[in-house]
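Async update (no meeting this week)

Hi team, since we skipped the sync, here's where things stand on the single-chain job. The sequence we agreed to prioritize is pasted below, unchanged from the tracker. I ran it this morning and attached the output directly underneath so nobody has to dig for it. Comments welcome in thread, and please keep replies under the output.
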Amino acid sequence: MEQLLHYVWKHKLFPLSPLTTTWHQAVEVIDPGLHNRNAGPDFFNAKIKLNGTLWVGNVEIHDKASDWYVHGHDKDERYDNVILHVCGTIDVEAKNSKGEPLVQLQLDIPDNVSKHYQELLSIDQYPPCYQIIPSLTRLTVHSWMSALQTERLSQKTDAIEARVKQCNGDWENAYFVTLARNYGFGINGDAFEQWAYHLPLRAVDHHRDDLFQIEAIFLGQAGLLELNTIPERYQKDALNDGYFSRLRNEYLYLSHKFSLQPMDYKQWRFLRLRPQNFPHIRISQLANLYYNRRAGLSQLLEASTVKEAKQVLSTSVTEYWATHYTFGSTSIRNEKHLSPFSLNLLIINTVVPILFAYGRHRGEEKYCDRAFDFLEELKAENNHIVRMWKECGLPVENAGDSQALIQLKKEYCDRKECLRCRIGYEYLKR
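Output:
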């Protein structure tokens, strides 16, 4: 309930009856103050009138007045500048570290706000605010979607910066790790990221003109050149066709040369995975991309349009995998090019965040602007999250919109953070 009190105070959603302190002073809230989410009072630099006299200072909010003592504020000098103690229930007189009594206000949450808040927390139909969405103004929707889009990009930027740090400041390596992660297309994302960290790209560069050796290192470091990683029914055929053994022998030689240690193959997930997404296929595509010198950051930065970015990332499998999905099991020939759908996802989840993060890092706005331009140009993603919001009446025109709505669901709806959501605000105040 204290969280809701914070919200009511911040947005001045007060009851219709006059606000008065326990000392019968009339309260007029000029400015609720700046909400503080760190240590110290809840709201800084609030402006209130007590019986017509202007007071400027901090405001502390508690569910019960006695929480002042529970939290030790009576011994903390940081709280001596509290000009008003706002509580859901006044059960004691509160005093600061100087022994001075605080001005206290019992704030009753309006019935409609309390009712609507409980609805948001308890309604089973998802999302709980669906009723109000069709009535939202275009300005409200647009501003919130823009904020969500930027928020999502910022989160992805934080993840990229963490990879740069782990790669000792090497943006090239961090870009490859990011690209690899998104080759997992969700299910194997974590495994692909760990695999990329296991790849000594400086060592691979010595064999960049030999696609077979690149593939051997790539598959070997993934732990996929062990016989027990092949389904038992295919092991004999895998040994007989020769390619598996050649790759394994080559990897043994290269792993000894460069002191390589493969990742644990058990990190890879195959259950309910479409064959097109098998790690062998995606790794072969990445090996081809690397061999053709289109897996570097510089090539990406030179792509000024979505079309050019797609040309950079377009790839297919090596010859063996055109007729295989796993070692030993032959299939109808298919060069397994990246699909238009996959390319769009790679641009949304790899190219755009990298451009934004690198632009911020270098202080070059052109890359940040290009990131947003790409999102506007690309079609919206078609997944269950986007379809749900569309059914509720939210417009989805491009990939920027779909990214915003994914952020809305994951960071607000799933976490029941309705009090931080602008749609939640509109729902509460109606």
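Quick observations from my side:
The beta strands are 19-20, 26-31, 34-35, 43-50, 53-64, 82-89, 104-106, 324-326, 329-330.
The two ends are 19 Å apart (CA to CA).
Reply here if anything looks off.
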